[in-house]
Amino acid sequence: MVNFELIRGIAQPSPSKIILLVLDGLGGLPNPHTGRTELETADTPNLDRLVAKGVCGLADIVSPGITPGSAPGHLALFGYDPLGFIIGRGVLEAVGIDFSLEPGDVAARGNFCTVDKTDLVTDRRAGRISTDKCAELCQLFDKIVIENVRLFVCPVREHRFIAVFRGEGLTSGVTDSDPQQIGVAPRTITALKPQASRMANIANQFIAEAKKILAKHYPANMALLRGFSERPQLPTMGEIYKLKPAAIALYPMYKGLARLVGMEVLKTGTTIEDEFLTLKQNYANYDFFFLHIKGTDSAGEDGNFERKVRIIEEVDNALSCLIGIEPDVIIVTGDHSTPAILKGHSWHPVPVLLHSKWCRPDKVTEFSEQACVSGGLGRFPATQIMPLAMAHALKLAKFGA
Fold it and tell me: Are 2 and 312 in contact (CB under 8 A)?
């Protein structure tokens, strides 16, 4: 965990630039046929070029053996203790699409999903329906009111939506309906504390209503909810690190998380190349950039080893324009591992590359899980990445006399 009071006391503004490139779900496991992970399989000359003058290691996002979600994963990368700062997925998605949350609102992340005739989930993502189809389905819930609670259902991206509950006596202490696995039925939402019983009851009524409304809209014939949450108050990265930070991301959840920690979210195009170009165009205006790549995680969750390899290679190719502007610090890592052979997040530590002219280079010559085991950073908590980035950008003064 980063001591924010310590960092506040020694952080100092400077013209140096830090780039945190996050390949979502970067870490993998060996393909049984080749013995190599997705990262080890990919052709990555630019990443290997950075490694040659950098230092590498493996980071535990939460702690060894714990499988992180995307929100705690990114919080850790930004230096926030993921066990101390809990942010629900619903709020992240809502803030990410600029939904105006009011005090007392409870937001949940929703998935349109597919259930069979026995109400068992067969596809948690309804075949990744289009965003346009998602928006069309969300309109079916327009103006629903349950026990004087107003409900807002808004599209996010593909199969994802948000459900915001607004009314008296609501609180976020309830369980999810999303079982996060197939072959089982959606779960009944229950209260985790007595004062959340009204919220649980309202949410279950919505789920029942959704089942009726979506019955004829296969493959999106059911809805799942998770991450019930209210908007938190977090210290910003500007307050802690004295940075002027910007975020470049395609998916609303990551935009929401960036906004909650005080980053300005930059408008960008829809491709990896667009994201890197946006960074280059805005390079003079900020001193910290969070650049998020989603495709690696999506490919891993779909069990598509080859697609994950291709996306890593696409990122490596786009890196050439970034290397050309010579940032003071480049960090490349992931928010968790998503091995294609597991089709989901895993507990495995993520590879980390830190490149700076102030590095003490190690003997690692390629960016991969196996190589990073012997890197100079060793195996360390992900919350330490930001202090390391700040130090290598000469943004931390000496501590003590």
Answer: no
Which amino acid is residue 135, in one-letter code?
A: A
Contact 388, 80 (CB under 8 A): no
Q: Does residue 87 register a pLDDT over 90?
A: no
Rg (CA), the chain: 21
Contact between residue 266 and residue 245 where contact means Cβ atoms under 8 Å apart:
no
Domain residue extents for the chain:
4-87+234-392, 92-229
For domain 4-87+234-392, the CATH architecture is 3-Layer(aba) Sandwich (3.40)
Counting residues of the chain whose pLDDT is more than 70, the rounded percentage is: 100
Is the per-residue pLDDT at 1 higher than 70?
A: no
Q: In what helix (H) or strand (E) does residue 229 lie, and over which residues does it extend?
A: strand 222-229
User: Mind listing the pLDDT tens digit for each residue in 268-285?
Assistant: 999 999 999 999 999 999
Q: How far apart are CA 179 and CA 185, in angstroms?
A: 7
88 pLDDT band, cuts 50/70/90, is: confident
Q: What does the alpha-carbon distance between residue 156 and residue 49 come to, in Å, rounded to a whole number? A: 37
Task: Specify the pTM.
Answer: 0.84
Q: Which residue has the tokens 């920690």?
A: 261
Nearest to 26 by CA among 74, 65, 75: 74
Three-state SS for 122-168 is: EECCCCCCCHHHHHHHHHHHCCCEECCEEEEEEEEECCEEEEEEECC
Q: What share of the chain is helix, strand, coil (3-state, %, to 5)?
A: 35, 20, 45
What residue ranges in 24-116 does DSSP mark as E strands? 54-60, 106-115
Element (H, E) at 52: helix 45-52
